[in-house]
Design brief:
By secondary structure, the chain is of the alpha+beta class. Among the domains are: 69 residues, no CATH class; 49 residues, no CATH class; 127 residues, Phosphorylase Kinase, domain 1 (2-Layer Sandwich), CATH 3.30.200.20. A six-stranded mixed beta sheet has the order 5-9-10-8-7-6. The chain has a two-stranded antiparallel sheet with strand order 1-2. A hairpin with a 7-residue loop joins strand 15 and strand 16. The termini are far apart.
Length: 476
């Protein structure tokens, strides 16, 4: 009581099914009233228990079940029936006989390059050369249409992104430091923006390592969005950035404007501003500081204020005055730099986590520590040494001044740079001496055969010569 199934063997001429009850009584008929057999496509039928105890199968498939029939002509093979003359099924001149292997008979197909009915005389016709030519022409026209469509789209994006303005300035020699790249140039340079070339990914876009035709290595920034209302300002900004030649600023080499969102090309920095933050401050192979990512920056004449309808920047570094009043000034960057200064002396990030609690503001925690005379609690213990208290207190005080809630109470960036240069000049000899002592102690305390750089303290101390050699240039 249930069901069974089997497959048809090949090479048979007929098949018959029948069903019969093994036992015939009222008890069996009461719960299994039906019996049936059927031929169906292999793999289609899925047994359900209700099919045994009811008429569900018949009611479910009232229109029947799917059946696949394999058909042939004749009862012989190709080699036999081709001798039969008019009775041979493949009547067309350009036809071929195909044997079947699961029974007697054969089938006919039109020869390659022909189509039609192989069972009729003259039924297979050659595919017209004119038709082939027509299809080739259609494909060529379609390809040309797509090419022109892409070219128009690139032209539209180029104009939309201020390309004409920039092009005329380059041609008139007003700008000679910027190169306009094509999309193909940058695809080749970055191996079609391959993930293996990614240098970094942020909220505004992704930076890739690129290699130009002349083997120059560059950084290619592919942004996500752009405000179309600021096209003129965008062009002016990239012109200014391309002409900025400062040892502490990553230079803009060029751009690609024939895409929906412009792609920027910068000089490549091996080690890794309205948006001053530690992630945007890089070190090159000689440990020279390079500031990059001016996506949220604005050029402002000295002492001027710009009203912003949309706040841009990174939380933890944003000037509270800018957040509240939407006014961007040169003192906004001073606040952000103050946070970077705190990151250096505390070893914490702008928004840091102290245990399982939600993120804390480094600026707020630092100011509370300063107010409560508990600065040592928040300082990075790896840089706190005897004799360094005065230096760290002066750096902390400079950070506090940068973090003043009112912009007018903050020092200018020139004043900040001058103060740091003065501290470096005063403390350089002391820092080098401290480094020598620490290096000596680490070497003496290291077990034989151990690598000096395996010690966290040693790693920290070995960076001091580089730190003492970093240039601080007063902004002009």
């Amino acid at each position: 009581m249930g069901c069974c199934q089997t497959t048809f063997p090949g090479n048979i001429s007929s098949f018959n099914t029948s069903t019969a009850a093994l036992l015939e009584n009222s008890t069996i008929m009461s719960f299994s009233p039906c019996r049936y057999s059927f031929i169906v496509e292999e793999g289609w039928f899925k047994f359900e228990p209700s099919f045994v105890s009811s008429t569900n199968f018949a009611s479910k498939y009232t229109n029947g079940v799917p059946l696949v029939l394999d058909w042939v002509v004749g009862n012989g093979s190709c080699s036999e029936d081709i001798k039969m003359g008019p009775q041979y099924a493949c009547q067309a001149m350009k036809s071929e006989c195909v044997n079947v292997y699961n029974g007697p008979g054969y089938r006919c197909n039109c020869s390659q390059g022909y189509e039609g009915n192989p069972y009729l005389q003259g039924g297979c016709q050659g595919i017209s050369i004119s038709v082939v030519f027509f299809m080739v022409c259609i494909f060529a026209l379609w390809a040309e249409y797509q090419k022109r469509k892409l070219a128009k789209e690139k032209e539209r994006f180029f104009d939309q992104n201020g390309g004409q303005i920039l092009y005329h300035q380059i041609m008139s020699k007003q700008v000679d430091t910027l190169r306009i790249f094509t999309q193909e140039d940058l695809k080749k340079a970055t191996n079609d923006f391959d993930e293996s070339r990614e240098l970094g990914r942020g909220g505004h876009g992704t930076v890739y390592k690129g290699i130009l035709k002349d083997n120059r290595v560059v950084a290619v920034k592919r942004s996500k969005i752009m405000n179309m209302a600021e096209t003129d300002e965008f062009v002016q900004e990239i012109i200014i950035l391309s002409q900025t030649n400062h040892r502490n600023v990553v230079r803009l080499l060029g751009c690609c404007l024939e895409v929906e969102v412009p792609i920027l090309v910068y000089e490549f920095i091996a080690n890794v501003h309205g948006d001053v933050k530690s992630m945007n401050i890089l070190l090159d192979e000689n440990y020279m500081v390079k500031v990059t990512d001016f996506g949220a920056s604005r050029t402002l004449p000295k002492d001027e204020v710009q009203f912003m309808t949309l706040v841009q920047g990174t939380m933890g570094y944003l000037d509270p005055e800018y957040l509240q009043e939407r006014q961007l000034t040169e003192k906004s960057d001073v606040y952000s730099f103050g946070v970077v200064l705190l990151e250096l002396i505390t070893g914490k990030t702008a928004i840091y986590h102290d245990g399982p609690k939600e993120g804390k503001s480094l600026a707020s925690s630092f100011l509370l520590a300063m107010k409560g005379e508990s600065l040592e609690v928040i300082m990075d213990s790896s840089i706190v040494h005897a004799g360094m208290e005065i230096l760290l207190r002066e750096v902390a005080e400079l950070g506090r001044m940068c973090l003043s809630s009112r912009g007018e109470e903050r020092p200018s960036m020139s004043q900040v740079a001058d103060k740091l240069k003065a501290l470096r000049s005063t403390w350089r000899e002391k820092l080098v001496l401290e480094h020598g002592k620490m290096e000596y102690l680490v070497v003496r305390s290291s077990p034989p055969g151990s690598a000096l750089h395996d010690s966290p303290s040693a790693s920290m101390c070995l960076t001091v010569p580089h730190m003492s050699g970093i240039g601080i240039e007063t902004p002009r």
